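Thread: Newbie trying to understand structure tokens

Hi all, I'm a second-year student working on a class project, and my supervisor (Dr. K.) asked me to get a predicted structure for one chain before our next meeting. I've only ever worked with sequences, so writing a 3D structure as a token string is new to me. If someone could post the tokens and maybe explain what I'm looking at, I'd be very grateful. Here's the chain:
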Amino acid sequence: MAQENKDNAGFSLPDPSAPAAPAAPDAVSTPEAGTAATGFETQPAAALAAENTGSRDLLIGGAILLVLFIVFFLAKNAYANGLVAKKLPPNKANASAWWLFTFLASAATGVVLAGVNASRFMAPVIVGPIAVVALASLVLTFTASRK
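---
Reply by user tm_fold:
Sure, no problem. This is what the structure looks like when written as tokens:
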């Protein structure tokens, strides 16, 4: 159909009986190990991963964090109820449980960010504050639960 109308400037398939035109040797580069071909140039795969974190990856990471936060909230309530059962005042048990939730949430955030794009999110500027919050909340979890 497209072969009959030569005036059409649209897309047309080549004739299958015609021989394939050889590719110019300088136009096509052979991908080396560890590189990803983009057009006519090749770039290292690590450089591509460091440049762009897809919105799909961030969305999956956010969904994982949301599910983990719900689980951590349930664990917080169970921990507070366990401390109250051990005759700790409810306000101290609740404070200690919230510190546990903060520790679990910050640790999970660091792990999920490392999974999404380690080369981008594991910089000291990002990991440092997450680690400080996690360690401080872990210490406060156990100090707030003392009688």
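A couple of things are worth pointing out once you decode it. Residues 90-121 form the longest helix (32 residues). The chain is about 60% helix and 5% strand. Feel free to ask follow-ups in this thread.
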